[in-house]
């Protein structure tokens, strides 16, 4: 299927590895030019080079910056050769806050979680959504978490911050931009084989006094698919939501979790 987005420009956060990289790879495979942002310069450069080699017809611009800061966002929007703020596609993605016990979290810990996982996506939306509406096409995909629908106790920081973003998006996606070709959706990963999952399972293993392998296997068995997802299949879902064919999907929370969420809705 031709997704109809060849030649568009995309901004992808957390793009040096994991789910962000999967999204960047999938978009580039559709002919989308990609500005990749992540904090780790070495891993980012390697990821960008791999995409260039796999997709020589697209432009790939890596920006090593902390997008949760004003300076980092300025670096992204000022990337030489990029579209400035004229992105057609924005995939917001930041590393989730650490797991733990809420009794140990200070106000500063909460502010950091909100800044990375709620306020930064809102800032990126604010900087790009009006331009998208003026041009008559825009796709914003926020990578949140399956914990928005089925919260995990140890992920309280993520539960709170990402649910706040979800509420904000629910209103904005249904505003006047919906009639101007702009969609905003949230993509909720369940258990995917990423560094984030390994950190979370490691924390659970320590808390429960079990081995990592035992906790990981128990998590797999709770997924109807009996496995963890991979970044390639996650990226494919993201690319579809960014396509012209997804123009009638907005304000939705798309859960990709191998069937783990037990609810009907």
UniProtKB/TrEMBL annotation:
It holds the Pfam family adh_short_C2. InterPro entries: NAD(P)-bd_dom_sf (IPR036291), SDR (IPR050259), SDR_fam (IPR002347). Signal peptide: none annotated. Gene3D superfamilies: NAD(P)-binding Rossmann-like Domain. PANTHER family: 3-OXOACYL-(ACYL-CARRIER-PROTEIN) REDUCTASE, NADPH-DEPENDENT REDUCTASE BACG. Belongs to the short-chain dehydrogenases/reductases (SDR) family. This is SDR family oxidoreductase. The lineage of its organism: Bacteria, Pseudomonadati, Pseudomonadota, Betaproteobacteria, Burkholderiales.
